[in-house]
Amino acid sequence: MTSNFLTTFFRKFVPALVAIVIVLWLYKYYGALEYTLKNLAEFFRLIYEHLILVIISMAAAIAVGITLGVIMTRKALEGISPVIMAVVNVWQSVPSLGVIALAYGILPLLGMSGIGIVPALIALFMHAVAPIVRNTYAGVESVSSDVIESATGMGMTQKQILFDIEIPNAMPVIMGGVRTSTAIIVGTAPLAFLIGGGGLGFWIFTGIALVDMGIMLAGAVPVALLAMFVDYLLAMLEKVVVSKGIQADQYA
Amino acid sequence: MGTMLSFKEVTKIYPGAEHIKAINELSFDLEDGEICTLVGPSGCGKSTAMKMVNRLIPMTSGKILIDGQNIDRLNTIELRRGIGYVIQNIGLFPNMTIGENIAIIPKMKGWDEGRIKERVETLLDIVNLPAEEYIDRYPRELSGGQQQRIGVARGMAIDPPVMLMDEPFGAIDPINRDHLQNEFLKIQAKLKKTIVFVTHDIDEAIKMGDKVCLLKDGKLVQFASPEKMLTEPANDFVRDFVGGDRTLKRLNLLTIRTAIRPDPPVVLETEKSATAGTIMTETGAKHLITVDSEGRLTGYIDHEALKKDGETVEQIKCETEAFLPDTSSLKDGLSEIFSHDLEFLIVLDDSKRVIGTLYTDDIKKILRG
Q: According to the model, what pLDDT value does residue B361 have?
């Protein structure tokens, strides 16, 4: 019991604590803390904008990603699913900066503005959706065919099999996709500043432009902490939405 | 007892393989409460035949009747919910507890909570897994054998008259398989379901089946009781398939009762030793079985024992382990005779009374028919 606790403690918490202490020390050393306290109102506005970017783009990505992933597993689409997957895979390899640049360049062609929060949201959404589609598809596909056969043979309808068997059993993999995606988006959201989307990127890019580590860290450190915090929340959520019968015994 | 399940010239041709009849005009009738084992070499169509009963595989032509009703007239979902289904790899739902797994079809049928709970508890009791210990556990916490028993319980959830079982014990190690088979036969003796049981193992087919249906290349080769299949194989294929040891396999099917020799040489243990000696000389018997006043086995005496001092039989008798109840199989009986190097085996009834003896000669006679 004790040794188990100690192992967990050393494996999980010690590295995180060390990282946080170093970052906070840098944060203070370069005057980021001082800068933040001086501009507290702006700090909260940037956090708010950042969260809006993350929450809205992720909510849309989860809804669309899971739906698309599930649709791709249906029998009728068996033929074209590999094609969609290939597109999704290529899409995922486009770097975040590239996605932002694409939004800036392509949206005006469609008659929309390439500047502001809307193009930023579209770009982030497009970037977030790929891992979720991939994981949902892989998760549902990986549900054992024996389980599906016995559900069918017992007289469950297609809909019951999807909602009571396939999605719940794919949940650990789907949640994995959501967590990956969220981590990427929290980290990519600062780039939204480049096309006028606001958020903590404002301080990061200002800091870089002025070669002022303090201002840069005042933007970058909250982004990192936010990523950790959101991931922690999702880990909690995972414990709720994934059945105990298929939960991994311990999160690495 | 009427016919519960009948196949009438059922044929299956898979699209894209029109020249092969996966199932070729299969017909047979199954009585209510019988287990029919579908057996044959791989690719013979045994699983296909079974899966046409709940329309997991649609048939090309022919009819299947359940309790006189053509299954084509039933809604697929309703048809399936009325048939228990148990497969080899069990297919328990890993995201649901044992209780939820068993309750799934009753829930869909709209049973109320109380009735479902009661049913789940009854079923867990039937398969010997105490409800209070197992109902809230998840499939991965159970051993393969326990999961299989849950699979059977789930198949029986709404007490369906017909059950389909696709190699249900195929993935279990031989020792546990034997145990599960026996347990299942005990459950079946009580519940009397009509069961289609697919297996590739002829020994299992013979052990589990009231009827054995042997298929080859989609065609019925022989449909008969296990006893008949062993004694009167329809052709060389059946003879080969049941194996060169088919005579010995019959020993498993027959009970000692069928070969018992009545009027065993018994003597009351209260008799004088001298009287016992006289009986032995007169009848020429080498052994006498000693019994108490109720006729229950207490031991035996032979010529060696007679040389001992003792006034009554009770004082000179020897202990014996050479006995079996008359419900044991002839295989067990023969094994006892060989392993103890006996002249005969003592046969007892339920209350341990001596009712006869078993000689190898009598077994031989029965096997020769």
A: 86
Q: pLDDT tens across A64-89, in order?
A: 999 999 999 988 887 888 888 888 88
CB contact under 8 A, B138 and A243: yes
Write down the ipTM of this complex.
0.78
Please name the member of B54, B87, B96 whose beta carbon is closest to the beta carbon of A146: B87
Supply the CATH number for residue B215's domain: 3.40.50.300
The proportion of chain A whose per-residue pLDDT surpasses 90, expressed as a percent, equals 45
Which helix (H) or strand (E) segment is B141 a member of? Answer: none
φ, ψ for residue B284, nearest 5 deg: 75, 10
> Which domain range does residue A98 map to?
31-241
Instruction: Provide the domain limits for residue B279.
Output: 257-368
Strand segments, DSSP code E, in chain B are 3-12, 23-31, 35-39, 61-66, 69-70, 83-87, 162-166, 194-198, 211-216, 219-224, 266-268, 287-291, 297-302, 323-325, 345-348, 354-358
Q: What is the pLDDT of residues B263-289, one digit of tens each?
A: 888 888 888 888 888 888 888 888 888
Residues of A engaging B, defined by a Cβ cutoff of 8 Å? 144, 146-157, 160, 164-165, 168-169, 171, 243-246
CA distance A245 to chain B (A): 5
Comparing CB atoms, the residue among A157, A245, A246 nearest residue B77 is A157
B207-262 pLDDT tens trace: 899 999 999 998 999 999 998 888 888 899 988 888 878 778 888 888 888 888 88
| pLDDT (average), residues A4-32 | 81
Judge contact between B328 and B271, C-beta under 8 A.
no
Under 8 Å CB pairs connecting chains A and B tally to: 80
Rounded Cα distance between B197 and A94, Å, is 54
- The domain boundary, picked from B193, B226, B254, lies at B254
CB contact under 8 A, B80 and A153: yes
Q: Confirm whether A156 is domain-assigned.
A: yes
Tell me if B327 sits within 8 A of B333, measured CB to CB: no
Give which of A150, A156, A159 to mutate to test B binding, by max B Cβ within 10 Å: A150
**What mean pLDDT, rounded, does chain A reach?**
88
Residues of chain B with pLDDT under 50: none
Q: Which chain B residues are closer than 8 Å to A246 by Cβ? A: 94-95, 138, 140
Please tell me which of the candidates B81, B88, B95 has its beta carbon nearest to residue A246: B95
